[in-house]
Amino acid sequence: MRLTDYTDYSLRVLLYLAVRDQGLSTIQDISDAYGISKNHLMKVVQQLSELGWVETVRGRNGGLRLAEQTRARTVGEVVRATESDFALVACLPDQNGERRPCVITPQCRLRSALEAARHAFLAELDRHTIGEVAGPQGPLAALLGIRAIIPVVPVAPVAPASDNPVPIA
Questions:
Q1: Quick one: angle between helices 38-50 and 75-82, nearest 10?
Q2: CA 46, CA 15: separation in Å to the nearest integer?
Q3: Which of 3, 48, 140, 163 could bridge 54 with an S-S bond, Cβ 3.0-4.6 Å?
Q4: What cellular component GO annotations does this protein have (predicted)?
């Protein structure tokens, strides 16, 4: 089974945001990290946002972040939501439940084997969550060019070193 580029890009966006973990990312950040067209990613992000899996923040300092519950989503859920057709052959039902007739349908064993394979494929994807496949974050972050976000901690002023200590006001 081959997934569409759209599904591939959807998974990549979710992985990037899961690895990034803190702060906001831009579509340009993700485009640069993977070498994917920004225009394609805009469509993907729009759907992921509509599904509630990605939060978008508008404005000058805006960007994207993974919605809190998305780490627990399975890869299978993402694939089902983004893939347009699971009919491996014409006699299997498409997304609308329609199938093309075939003269050997009454005696065909191939169809049931293909349906079982499709079911097994999705069942395996359902065993893995976005959070799980995004780990370990350190090595993935390095490959994606993501630098760790270090929180800014205020530091108390230090008195200059001298023979006559001067109090700091």
A1: 110
A2: 16
A3: 48
A4: cytosol
pLDDT, one tens digit for every residue, the chain (169 residues): 788 999 999 999 999 999 987 789 999 999 999 999 999 999 999 999 999 999 999 988 889 999 999 999 999 999 999 987 776 776 776 666 677 777 877 888 888 888 888 899 999 999 999 999 998 778 888 888 887 654 444 555 555 555 555 555 5
Bond before 136 cis per omega within 30 degrees: yes
Q: Which two tokens stand for residue 108?
A: 């065909």
Alpha-carbon gap, residue 34 to 21, rounded angstroms: 17
Query: What are the residue ranges of helices labelled H in 4-162?
Result: 5-20, 27-34, 38-50, 75-82, 110-125, 130-133, 137-144
Residue with tokens 């509630």: 52
| Domains defined along the chain, listed by start | 5-144 (1.10.10.10)
Looking from the CA of 147 toward its CB, the CA atoms found within 13 Å total 3
**CA 34/CA 73 separation, integer angstroms:** 22
Residue 144 CA, chain-centre distance (Å), reads 13
